[in-house]
């Protein structure tokens, strides 16, 4: 009787081992299929990355270059937005924040609007991949005549795009009331 019990125990152990081995082999086959599917997805993702799309979101690299000039309580700001790619953008919004209040009754460039006492927003218009947008030129009167003004330039809205390099689209410029131009 004990021999039979031992045989049944051995058979159960063997069956469990065979079932476990079958599950391991089935899992390996599924992983191989998943790995092959993953390679296909990675290839598709690489193609999308070359096109400037990551996870359904465009990837860009916005950059702003320009000059700031302060003279006699008048501030002039000239900005050229640039998209260093890889995807084109239909429109973005550039933000200028000042350390001094703007005078009332400003007449701003087309596509620009005041967003507060010290803030101006300007649309850039379409930015092609690896291309420049329209030049934005502003001449603004300040409420008082400060000896210096700090101008902060950055992107307020980018249409939902991803920009991993903010070193070229976030600037802080100190302009002294000397009439000199300060580049960024």
Detailed description of the structure:
It is a single chain. With 184 residues, this protein is of the alpha+beta class. The chain has 2 domains: 2-50; 58-183, Immunoglobulin-like (Sandwich). The protein is built from 1 helix and 13 strands. The protein has one helix at 2-50; strands at 53-54, 57-60, 62-71, 74-83, 93-98, 112-114, 119-123, 131-132, 136-141, 148-157, 162-163, 171-176, 181-183. Strands 3, 4, 8, 9 and 13 form a 5-stranded antiparallel sheet that branches. A 5-stranded antiparallel sheet has the order 6-7-5-10-12, with no helix packed on it. A hairpin with a 4-residue loop joins strand 6 (112-114) and strand 7. The relative contact order is 0.19. Mean pLDDT is 79; it is low at 1-55.
Secondary structure layout:
Blueprint: H1 2-50, E1 53-54, E2 57-60, E3 62-71, E4 74-83, E5 93-98, E6 112-114, E7 119-123, E8 131-132, E9 136-141, E10 148-157, E11 162-163, E12 171-176, E13 181-183
Spell the H/E element sequence.
HEEEEEEEEEEEEE
CATH superfamily of the largest domain: ntegrin, alpha v. Chain A, domain 3
Number of domains: 2
Structural class: alpha+beta
Task: Count up the helices.
Answer: 1
Q: What is the name of the CATH class of the largest domain?
A: Mainly Beta
Distance between the termini: 93 Å
Indicate the overall shape: elongated
Q: Over all CA atoms, what is the radius of gyration?
A: 31 Å
Under CATH, the topology of the largest domain can be stated as Immunoglobulin-like
Q: Helix content range of the residues, please?
A: 25-40%
Number of strands: 13
The biggest beta sheet is recorded as: 5 strands, antiparallel
Low-confidence stretches: 1-55
Oligomeric state of this protein: single chain
Question: Which CATH architecture of the largest domain would you pick?
Answer: Sandwich
- Average residue pLDDT: 79
